[in-house]
Write a structure and sequence with these properties.
The chain contains nine helices and ten strands. By secondary structure, it is an alpha+beta fold. It folds into two domains: 139 residues, Cytidine Deaminase, domain 2 (3-Layer(aba) Sandwich), CATH 3.40.140; 102 residues, Cytidine Deaminase, domain 2, CATH 3.40.140.10. Helix 1 packs antiparallel against helix 2 and helix 8 packs parallel to helix 9. 42% of the residues are buried. The mean pLDDT is 95. The structure holds zinc ion. Zinc ion binds next to helix 5.
Length: 284
């Protein structure tokens, strides 16, 4: 493998990163003499290596290129002992990753296998008809892969998963929380940045790791309900993408809005299946 590419990947591994800045991409394009799309395809195996697939043994890697020019890796994740509905697909992992860095727009999604129907529906929630999907053999617009779709507009939703308004949940005056707790605020910030236009159940998760780093997750809801991405799923996907292990989790917090739908029980079950840490919870 090209030396510059090798060095960049090693730095990423050491820093627990799973995304690339525009400057790094420019260096890699120059060093490898690959065009951006070819470079993205060349990086897919790196994303696939982050997959956690005890059920299917089928690894999928994805890269979401954000409007800012950052590239975000994603990989599929299955949790043994949990229903298949708790599995996360690589496209969800990559787009959720971009959401955590407040990308408002996705330029392209590069993926190592043809997106399943679940992922097509998930990506429709971006509300970007022109979203480009770079598949192993060919490129498609999402609208070509999902014609005659049931989309956000069908439930009178006027913005997409990444460009909606922030929430206004506040900690002050809430007897369930310690207002000196930084982890609670990290989870609350994610809840306020989450996307829950149908249920109003804004929700966020923050995991504190043994090296002091945080892994975050936010709820990304879907008009078809079932492809919705839970905040704990996204936080655990981040954990594995960044090269951490469940034993690295020291604290876990979920903050969510009181609504007809709730995330805490599912999040608690998911966490319990990989860690003995107790999930701390608060409703706002
Ligand atoms: Zn899928």
């Amino acid at each position: 493998m090209n030396d510059v590419l090798q060095q960049t990947l090693e730095q990423h591994r050491l820093k627990h990163l799973a995304r690339f800045s525009p400057d790094q991409i420019a260096i890699l394009v120059q060093a490898t003499q690959l065009g951006e799309e070819a470079l993205a395809r060349a990086l897919l195996p790196l994303a696939q290596q982050k997959a956690r697939v005890p059920v299917s043994d089928f690894t999928v890697g994805a890269i979401a290129i954000g409007g800012s020019g950052h590239w975000y890796l994603g990989a599929n994740m299955e949790i043994a002992g949990q229903p298949l509905s708790s599995a996360l697909h690589a496209e969800q992992s990559a787009i959720g990753h971009a959401a955590l860095f407040d990308e408002r727009y996705i330029e392209k999604v590069i993926v190592s296998a043809t997106p399943c129907g679940h992922c097509r529906q998930f990506m429709l929630e971006l509300d970007q008809d022109s979203l480009m999907l770079v598949l192993p053999q060919e490129n498609f617009m999402l609208s070509e892969l999902l014609p005659h779709a049931f989309g956000p507009a069908d439930l009178n939703q006027s913005y997409g998963m990444l460009n909606g308004p922030a929430g206004n949940l506040v900690a002050a005056g809430n007897p369930q929380v310690d207002t000196h707790d930084a982890l609670m605020f990290a989870a609350l910030d994610e809840a306020n940045a989450s996307y829950a236009p149908y249920s109003k159940n804004r929700a966020g998760v923050a995991l504190l790791l043994s090296d002091g780093q945080l892994c975050l997750g936010r709820y990304l809801e879907n008009v078809a309900f079932n492809p919705s991405l839970g905040p704990m799923q996204l936080a655990l996907s981040q954990l594995f993408l960044r090269g951490y292990q469940p034993k690295d989790i020291k604290r876990a917090f979920i903050a969510e809005a009181a609504a007809k739908v709730q995330q805490a029980d599912a999040a608690e079950q998911l966490l319990a299946s990989i860690s003995s840490i107790t999930l701390e919870k608060a409703q706002f």
